[in-house]
Amino acid sequence: MKDQRFHHNRLELEQQIGTLLQHTSDSLGKCNAKNLSSITLSIAKIVRSVREAHQRRRVNFYHQAFGKVLQESSSNPNHGIFHALVKATDANLPRFDARYLSNTAYAYALLGYDPKIDERSLLGAIAEKSIECIHQFKAQEFANTVWSFAKLNVHNPRLFQSIGDAMARKRDLNEFKPQELANIVWAYATTNAQHAGLFQNVGDSIAAMDDLDIFKPQELANIVWAYTTNKKQHHCLFIKVGDSIVAMDDLRSFNPQNLSNIVWAYAANNTQHPNLFQKIGDSIAAMDDLRSFNAQNLANIVWAYAKNNTKHADLFQKVGGSIAAMDDLRSFDPQALANIAWAYATNNAHNPNLFQKVGDAIASSDGSKVFTTQALSNIVWAYAKLDVKHPGLFKKIGRSIGALDDLSLFNTRALANIAWSFAVAEVDVPVAFNDAFTRELLNKHHDLNVKDLTQLYQWHIWQVEKSNPGLPESIRKRCEQAFKKSRSN
Q1: What is the DSSP letter of 344?
Q2: Are 259 and 251 in contact (CB under 8 A)?
Q3: Which residue in 4, 68, 349, 443 is deepest, having the highest Cβ count within 10 Å?
């Protein structure tokens, strides 16, 4: 009886909501710019609340009713309801000011919906109108607009150039809140929109602050991530952010994605900050477990420490133990597995259980996981470097290489590393070193450096011992000379 009454009440509420929306739709022709912007944003916030309730699995009576009316599915809005609203907005766009433009773009970003009018993008029209009135924009409008376009993956170079120019001209950015600054550079990085002046001005502004206590962990992480992703250098900014994090009592307010993005950003940007890496490493190593870290987090963290030439034995032991204890490694993509192996070998961090686990995962993988040439090279190099025996892994990779008709994607370093690694591991997979391999060596023999030549000669000696052909005579002598010279030095 109670369930029937609940169902009846929900249907009744759905009808009331539908009637209200129909009345609103019929009245859109009388709405001004402010009304249209407010209606769009209000509906978007309701939809966001419904989706968040479903994600948290805390759906109540009202969530069910609003969700039924406003959405076609859990992730798509009801296009029929928004059709009239989009048309009315488009017709009134000439009368929208900066605030209404940014609020409308923000609303559709919350919805995850890029509306079209006769194949034209409403966001494109909003961009053109925004450029016209860019002088009206304040901090929040700048931030909401670029964030919205990035969130919807809508690229509009003219809009981003115009906003970048406007922000680069500002003498100071004191009106901008930390979240606004973070969202702006995040948006430019996400859309790969280039504007050196904007990044310079934002970086200068943050670096000049007395402290960064008002910045949340997410904002600090997004800022350094954005600079690195957008290939922008700003040493003073990175030092300022690093110093601010080091000065904190603890890093419990940083989630795994924050920590991963920060160390990745510093390493990929070639910015040294030993105290920051020590602080983050200590924090992760002291955790009870790393179950809240996803595969990409773990791979990026150890990669960053190795890339930055920073050792942290406790961190590497913690991460390695966590991965080795997993039921399986299906959540790790090929690049993540390669980066983990490379990082441990580069850092000279021995972890037999980890390498056994990773080796087993690769050896038993099917064709659904496609490894790049660099990944294959890095994996076998890592096992050879740490003298970890895993014949199954080498046979799997050897057969994968042998199945390739074209090895042109392998550079000389990769070719030499692969040959050397198989020799060190003493796993003979003749099919890996077939005519295609020899042909690629001959094609690129002018690019071989001393280290490549030395490694190839070590492989050649091993191949001869196995009664295999080894190196072609035309490059064998160069390899032998390099090898003998390295031994004499």
Answers
A1: H
A2: yes
A3: 349
Task: Calculate mean pLDDT across residues 443-471.
Answer: 94
In order, the DSSP letters of 107-166 are HHHHHT---EETTEEHHHHHHHHHHHTGGG--HHHHHHHHHHHHHTT---HHHHHHHHHH
- Strand, coil or helix: what is 411? coil
Mean pLDDT of 477-485: 94
Residue 5 has pLDDT above 60, yes or no: no
**Cα distance between residue 228 and residue 239, in whole Å:** 14
C-alpha closest to that of 185 among 231, 152, 154: 231
Cα–Cα distance between 330 and 295 in angstroms, integer? 9
Higher pLDDT, 375 or 406: 375
Among 187, 22, 173, 226, which residue's Cα sits nearest to residue 109? 187
Residue type at 460? H
Buried b (16+ CB within 10 A) or exposed e, 339-369: bbbbbbbbbebebeebbebbbebbeebeeee
Average per-residue pLDDT for the chain = 90
The token duo for 225 is 């991530």
How many of the other CB atoms lie within 10 Å of CB of 377? 24
Residue 58: pLDDT over 70: no
pLDDT score of 6: 41
When comparing pLDDT for 48 and 156, which is higher? 156
Our CA angle for 177, 180, 181, nearest 5°, is 90
Distances (CA, A) of 211 to 41, 242, 427: 35, 11, 56
Token pair listed for 368: 């659904």
The span from the first CA to the last CA of the chain, in angstroms, equals: 90
SS3 state of residue 387:
coil
- For residue 207 the two structure tokens come to 């670096």
Task: Round to whole Å and give the CA distance between 169 and 172.
Answer: 9
Residue 12 in this model has a pLDDT that exceeds 80: no
Task: Give CB contacts under 8 A, 24+ apart, made by 43-50.
Answer: 43/70, 43/81, 43/82, 43/85, 43/107, 44/106, 44/107, 44/108, 44/110, 44/111, 45/107, 45/110, 46/70, 47/71, 47/77, 47/110, 47/111, 48/110, 48/111
pLDDT, tens only, 328-360:
999 999 999 999 999 999 999 999 999 999 999
Annotate 282-331 with DSSP letters as a single string. HHHHTSS--TTS-HHHHHHHHHHHHHTT---HHHHHHHHHHHHTSS--TT
Stated pTM of the model: 0.90
Better-predicted residue by pLDDT, 119 or 330: 330
- Distance (Å, whole) CA 419 – CA 440: 13
pLDDT for position 180: 98
71 three-class SS: strand
